[in-house]
Description:
The chain is built from 1 helix and 3 strands; from the N terminus they run ββαβ. The chain is of the alpha/beta class. It has a domain at 9-17 and 26-63. Keywords: Signal.
Amino acid sequence: MFRLLAPLIIFYTSSLLNTIENGGKFKRYANTFDLASGDEAPQISEAVFMAIARRLGGARHIYIEDVCQLEPHIRR
């Protein structure tokens, strides 16, 4: 009656990157996402941003920030 469809959009935090590594729950979908959206953009370090971009390279990336939240790790 129901069937599982591959996700086209993923919302994630940088701490969930291991879900698209070998053995991760979303590994088989890692190259199928059309859109990747990350919250808390200022909290993402450059190294983590590069890891996200490398692992989800085929997707468009949108990063969201709330200017009234925690101080960022990265200074502009």
